[in-house]
Structure formats: structure tokens, C-alpha cells
Write a structure and sequence with these properties.
This protein is about 45% helix and about 15% strand. With about 350 residues, it is of the alpha/beta class. It comes from Flavobacterium macacae.
């Protein structure tokens, strides 16, 4: 698969990625390399990654606990301390090997340590490959509120190796599919249509779909790196999806949702809002609902859940001047940003989701 040129860095794929990484290491005079991995990727992915790394530099592996609940400033403090103890300096390089938590958090730690050191992303989950590692967003959660603290700062490169997907359980693969579905809905109807029947897809097909998904996200980010305009399109499904994810994360009576599971529900809900605001036809909405529900288990929303979820919407990063802003579909394959939805319409969306 061809390299994709992003805004100031390349995105390499599979075998070519390792040769480009090793060439990069030989051409740049780093003092040492720190590899960030969570407990899962340290065990399952580093045995695949490390044999492909060709360098005489000292390498330190720094592991932290896996899970969204550890994507916080406390983990960052521990990592900053470890980097300091291991004599990290301005010429150190961080390589983040892992899913979205590792790339988000690792990129933030590197971007702030000694006012910023270079880093590379090696995403190991489908979600991280098509979304988290692309676009330069790095950050952590504030309590249960998603990505409230962070920076936009690009890596030196991204290396997408799809063989890491063989280590993923099915729920993690589905979680990544949510972002790929979103890319079709907001940008390319033909791409969306490819997901109407996943039964006939093989490994090579998935590689091509991943490459296309990265191309879509990169194309949008290149137009608007700092999210002042069209990049907000990537938040379709995320206004309600992030609120749902945060609510389930902080509520001890609820099972924690994977990011993609919450976003899948968010896309159905925001698809309903798009339909009711006459931006898409009812047939389009029903198609979206049917396809997503064929891939993801339905989430149970009780009446008592709705008010707290709505209250969390005020923390969405797209909001301006106290107004909750949605990115809504304008037909499948197109988007309208900075849209408003009344509370009653949001409640109706949940009622329809439950029906």
C-alpha cells in the first residue's frame, strides 16, 4: 500500500513502514529511544515490533496499565518521572506502540516533556490505525470527560502494520469499524456501501479499506489541521457518543463501553437528528440504523440515564458560546457542521434508538 503524505509527516504501511522507520533512525541523531506500551501491547505486540527495529541506540520499554480509565494526567506524571529518571533529553525519541489510549497519551507526554520531543505512532488496533494515530491530536481525559486536556502536534511518522490486528478480540475490531463507517457516512457514499455486507471481506479487502479510511481522514485534516471548520465533520456521532462513553465510564452500575461501541450508538442517534431536521431521507436513516445494528450490540438506555447524558454534552469541545454544536449528515456522504438540536429532539432520538 502506498505511503500517504499527511500534514508534515508520512503514514507508512506494513513492510515498507519498517524499512522507512529504520532509515529514519539511521538519518537522525537521537540520544535514545523510549517505547511506550500498555500492559496488553507489551505482551502481544512488542514481540512482533522489536525484531523489525534496526538501531544501535539504547532502547527502554516503558509500560503502563491498559484501559481508558488510565488515560489521565496521573499516568502522564508517572511517565514524565520515568523519562526523567532514565535521563531522557531533548534528543530522545518516543515510539508509541499500542491502541488509541497509547497513541493519545504517549503523544501528549512526548509533546510536553522538556517542552516537546519527537515521537512516532505505531498503532496496533483498528481504531488507532484509522483514527487515533492520524491527525495530530494527543491528549488525556479529565475524570470521565473525554480528551479535555491535550495538544495538536504531529508525529514524525505513523507506521500502520495490519498484522497487529491478528492479536485483537472481535469487540476491539468492531470498535475500529465504527470510525470507518463514519468516514463513509460523512465523506464517501461508495465507501459506506462497502460495509453493507461484511461477510464477504477477506484480509486483503480489509487492508484496502483501512488505507481508504486513513485517506479520508487525512484529506479532511489536511484542509483544517486545527479544527476550526471542516475537521469538525469527523465528530459525527461523537457529540452524543462521547457523552454516552463518559457516562458509562463514570457510572459503577454500567458496563464500560469501548469507544467504537459508544460512537456507533452516537451515529444512530445523530442520524435520527439529521433525519428529523430534514437533512437526510427516512430511508437513509433506516439504512444507517440497520447496518450499524447488524454490527454492534444494542446499548440499553434507561429513562434515568438520559438527563445525565444530556448534562455531559456541555463539555463537548465543538461547543461555542455555551451552545451545543453537532456535525450532522447532509445526505449520506456529506456533512453539515455547527448544527443545533433541541433537548426534546435529543430525547426523541434516544426513544427511537430504544424502539
Amino acid at each position: 500500500m502506498n505511503t500517504i503524505q499527511a500534514n508534515g509527516y508520512p503514514i507508512h504501511f506494513n513492510e515498507k513502514g519498517y524499512s522507512e522507520l529504520n532509515k529514519f533512525l539511521s538519518e537522525n541523531k537521537y540520544s535514545n529511544i523510549f517505547i511506550f506500551a500498555d500492559s496488553g501491547t507489551n505482551e502481544q505486540c512488542l514481540p512482533v515490533f522489536l525484531p523489525n527495529l534496526e538501531t544501535d541506540l539504547a532502547i527502554e520499554i516503558i509500560e503502563f496499565e491498559a484501559g481508558e480509565e488510565n488515560k489521565n494526567i496521573e499516568t502522564c506524571i508517572e511517565l514524565w518521572k520515568v523519562l526523567t529518571e532514565l535521563k531522557g533529553d531533548r534528543k530522545s525519541l518516543v515510539i508509541n506502540v499500542g491502541g488509541g489510549v497509547v497513541t493519545d497519551l504517549g503523544g501528549f507526554v512526548a509533546s510536553t516533556f522538556k517542552r516537546g520531543i519527537d515521537f512516532i505512532h505505531v498503532p496496533t488496533t483498528l481504531l488507532a490505525m484509522v483514527d487515533a494515530s492520524v491527525g495530530g491530536k494527543n491528549g488525556v481525559d479529565l475524570g470521565s470527560l473525554k480528551n479535555q486536556v491535550g495538544v495538536i502536534n504531529v508525529p514524525k511518522m505513523v507506521l500502520v502494520d495490519t498484522q497487529f490486528l491478528e492479536t485483537l478480540p472481535q469487540n476491539q475490531m468492531r470498535s475500529g469499524l465504527a470510525e470507518m463507517l463514519k468516514h463513509g457516512l460523512i465523506y464517501d457514499k461508495k465507501y459506506w456501501n462497502l460495509f453493507s455486507d461484511l461477510n464477504n471481506l477477506n484480509t486483503d479487502d480489509l487492508d484496502v479499506l483501512i488505507h481508504q479510511s486513513v485517506e479520508i481522514k487525512n484529506s479532511i485534516v489536511m484542509q483544517d489541521p486545527t479544527e476550526n471548520g471542516i475537521r469538525k465533520a469527523l465528530n459525527f456521532g461523537h457529540t452524543l457518543g462521547h457523552a454516552i462513553e463518559s457516562y458509562f465510564l463514570e457510572n459503577d452500575t454500567k458496563a464500560t463501553l469501548l469507544h467504537g461501541e459508544a460512537i456507533a450508538a452516537g451515529m444512530i442517534l445523530e442520524g435520527y437528528i439529521s433525519f428529523k431536521k430534514e437533512l437526510i431521507a427516512e430511508s437513509d436513516y433506516l439504512e444507517i440504523k440497520t447496518v450499524i445494528n447488524s454490527i454492534f450490540d444494542k446499548i440499553i438506555f434507561e429513562e434515568k440515564d438520559l438527563a445525565p447524558i444530556q448534562e455531559l454534552l456541555v463539555h463537548d469541545k465543538k461547543n461555542e458560546y455555551g451552545t451545543i454544536q453537532f456535525a450532522l449528515l447532509d445526505g449520506i456522504g456529506n456533512i453539515k457542521i455547527n448544527q443545533i438540536a433541541e433537548n426534546e429532539l435529543i430525547i426523541d432520538a434516544f426513544l427511537d434508538y430504544n424502539s
